[in-house]
Design brief:
The chain has three helices and three strands; from the N terminus they run ααββαβ. With 89 residues, it is α+β, with helices and mostly antiparallel strands. The protein has one domain: GMP Synthetase, Chain A, domain 3 (2-Layer Sandwich), CATH 3.30.300. It has a three-stranded mixed beta sheet. The protein starts with a helix and ends in an 8-residue tail after the last strand.
């Protein structure tokens, strides 16, 4: 399942409420909540450092928020650097 642009923005907006403006601007810059495969949500971050920090500190938050917005259970959040993204939309 491909995450729509509206769903992507909704997840990002909810995450902004949790992490705060300055951290969101630094960490979630250019984030893309992209695709769901089974119970795995693929997320693309700006670079490797942002991806690692996002996955380590916020994977649980993202999974809870995404589960509600996407109306399906998300058990795993895999955050990868944006250069590994298949295609830009």
């Amino acid at each position: 399942m491909i995450v729509t642009e509206v769903q992507d923005q909704a997840i990002a907006a909810r995450m902004a409420l949790i992490v705060g403006a300055s951290r969101f601007d630094r960490l979630f810059k250019a984030v893309r909540f992209d695709e769901v495969d089974g119970d795995i949500l693929y997320v693309y971050a700006l670079d490797e450092d942002a991806a690692a920090e996002m996955e380590d500190e916020f994977a649980l938050h993202i999974s809870i928020i995404a589960s509600k917005i996407l109306d399906r259970q998300i058990n795993v959040v895999l955050v990868l650097p944006r250069q590994l993204m298949k295609s830009e939309r």
